[in-house]
Amino acid sequence: MMQVRAYIIHSSNEALAMACTIAIRYSAVRRQGFNADNDDKEEFQVLDYRQQQYRLLPLLSASYAIFFTGRHVLDRLKHIENQLVSGATTITKTVVGDIHATTSALKSFATTFTADGIEDCRKACGGHGFLMCSGLVELSNTYLQSCTVEGDNHMLPQQVIKVLLKLVEKVQSGDAEALKDYAQTDMGYLIEPLQKVMKNASVNGTPTTCSFAFPSSATHDHFLDIEMLLVAFQHRTACLLLDVAMQLQSSMETSSPQQSWNDCLLYMSRASRAHACYLLLRDFFDGLEDERRKGSSSCLGDKEIAVLSQCLNLLALYWIDQHLSDFLQIQCLNSNHVPLLRNALLDVMTKLRPSAVGLCDARDFSDFRLKSALGRYDGDVYPAIIEAARNDPLNTQSQNGGVGLGYDESLRNLIVDGVGEYRGGTVTANKGVAGTMSRL
Length: 440
Description:
By secondary structure, the chain is mainly alpha-helical.
């Protein structure tokens, strides 16, 4: 089950990347709106509009994050499998529970994000995105099952939280031996933030206030520091997880365990999502660091790593902006930080814009695989749309070309010789079409 989920996570990166490739290539080809500052009356590329960049560039960045995370999860499962086969190391319940929580959280979040992202890409292509020849309709319909198979996405967060609450218990009890095991897992990053938040709670009585916060004198550059952003995501998960634990404890004083659990499901969903977001960003960061350490043996050069680092930064800022209430709630940010955050977001989008098409081309999806008139590698979009219309069965499988299936058998008798009432059979002077009104 965990291995299937891991493959679903990894395959999500390709589905989202294909949708982004189609939408971004089309947005680079399509022009709309004149530039008043330009005397040659050249229209804007749609991709130059900030709304379009905000819709598409974070999705493209997320496809790379899911790639690195999917690869990490598959490698970890392979490592566990090798250990089991060799018998050299005992696989503890902590390790099994952790990989179960990791695959559950990532499967739930990544597939939901990808399915929604494909639909956003379709909408970003305007009316042409609704065409079958866009490739996005088939891609969406093919992918949607991933949100349900191997665990419904709204149910899996409960599995995640059941495991993470065990870590909360160990941190609260101060079980040093158990925490050593947890430190080697994907949950290990939560130990220190949980300890600090619990300490603050005992002193200040504010359980959801994290011990990390951007300084009141923060500048634009603070929000371009990816390591600082990662710490913010760590504390967000820790605080939201403690919210779940405290809500459960409080609710059980007046309700049954089952009702208390039911009342906390929304809190669980938020905590699971926060855990998945951090894992995606961390694995993206670690993947780029690994490529940087490889030096000349890496398939990525310094320029490629620099551009992907911009993707990482953009994705982190985008998720903070999308889930701003979480960071404000735990007082990691305050209202004065929000303009700085959004200015940093605009700055990273500006830097990433020239590389957008190249990042799509780097995935090397063939036109045959994309099956899209809009996402063609050569950019020859509009002739491809016309050709797709010519080849559509509605325009090829009829004696009266261009009318469509069923016309000769049914509709022709309603229309020929003027509008009339269809009585069945062939059209004659006394049978077939009569009167002045069509009654279908």
